[in-house]
């Protein structure tokens, strides 16, 4: 079988096999590119009037647990803390994806919003489905996509190389 025919078949079947996972990666990737510009995906970071870091961990937990949406009662209910010293804000991300932004000087709640970017990132890399899907579907999709890119470049370049060779043969 000629290389160009084999490349076309591999290109066609590779495209079919990777279509759905690739669509998930593309759509979520576009959304993640816009996460800082779209508050529906990731809440904007608030700013404190005085960026002093005066709250301790117990006070942060106390303030965060006073926000009903977060359902925080203990440190086990918190996914992570994101401290922004320059802005005087600590972002407390609850396990239920609610994010409360607290002024690090006064303890005032500056912003409360549902954070979707972590969910979208897990869809993007396939881990939301399962670790098996990430390893056995999304990773092979990436490898096949690389192969599609290589065969696509070859299929695009081949006619140009053939024309150049013919031109040299007739003039040389």
Topology diagram in text:
Elements: H1 3-33, H2 57-65, E1 78-84, E2 89-94, E3 98-103, E4 109-114, H3 117-125, H4 131-171
Antiparallel strand pairs: 1-2, 2-3, 3-4
Helix pairs in contact: 1-3, 1-4
Strands of the widest sheet, in order across it, are 1-2-3-4
Number of strands: 4
Please, what is the average pLDDT?
A: 89
Tell me, briefly, the overall form. Answer: elongated
Helix count?
4
Largest sheet: 4 strands, antiparallel
Strand content bin: 5-15%
By oligomeric state, this entry counts as single chain
Q: What is the rounded distance between the termini?
A: 31 Å
Please trace the helix and strand order, writing H or E for each element: HHEEEEHH
Unreliable segments (pLDDT under 50, ≥5 consecutive)? Answer: none
Measured as a percent range, the helix fraction is 40-55%
Work out the count of structural domains. 2
Helix/strand-derived category reads: alpha+beta
**Mind telling me the C-alpha Rg?**
25 Å
Task: Characterise the protein shown here.
With 172 residues, the chain is of the alpha+beta class. The protein has 2 domains: 1-40 and 116-158, no CATH class; 43-115, Nuclear Transport Factor 2, Chain: A (Roll), CATH 3.10.450. 52% of the residues lie in helices and 15% in strands. It contains 4 helices and 4 strands, in the order H-H-E-E-E-E-H-H. A 4-stranded antiparallel β-sheet has the order 1-2-3-4, covered by helices on one side. A hairpin with a 5-residue loop joins strand 3 (98-103) and strand 4. Helix 1 (3-33) runs antiparallel to helix 3 (117-125) and helix 1 (3-33) crosses helix 4 (131-171). The protein is elongated and about 80 Å long. The protein starts with a helix and ends with a helix. 16% of the residues are buried. The mean pLDDT is 89.
